[in-house]
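FORM 7B: Structural annotation worksheet

SECTION A. Query
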Amino acid sequence: MGQAKKAGFPKDLIERAIARGKGVSLSGDPLQMLTVEAMLPPSVSTIIECQTDNRKRTLEDIRLLVKGAGGMVTPISHLFDRRGHINLTSDRELEEEQIMDQVLEAGALDMDLGKDKKSLSVYTEPNETASIAQSLSSSLNQSSGSFEIVWVARPDSVINMEVVDEERRQALEDILSFKF
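SECTION B. Predicted structure
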């Protein structure tokens, strides 16, 4: 909080951020989760999750943003799977064959070894993410960088963004990086 004050953030903005971190609005009302499924150009399925104290206002804001970008709000969750995602890092290079056995024994579904061979991404069932992260951290002697629940696109629904022209790709990046 002291760093935010030194950086010149207004007091009400700091208080609002602290309240949201606790899961409540400034008025003390609990925040509600809102999930919006949308198709953005060029045929990119997007799931937008947010917390809000006013569902109607936030839903309308997101709908306007999606429509303004040339997209539409439509059911697309069937193109995704809900997964736990764990990031592990190491100070030494990891060997894929050796790690794969430990990852599967811990109950994970899949893993990706980074190009640098020092980072590891592990995918799990959402309800097992924390326990698998703890198990892998201890069995591999690695620090658990982070873990979260994410939406992962199904392989048959992924498009190659390299074939999309630069203008459309930049427009999509602008939409996805929008902050309220």
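SECTION C. Observations
The chain is about 35% helix and 30% strand. The longest helix spans residues 55-68.

SECTION D. Sign-off
Analyst initials: ____
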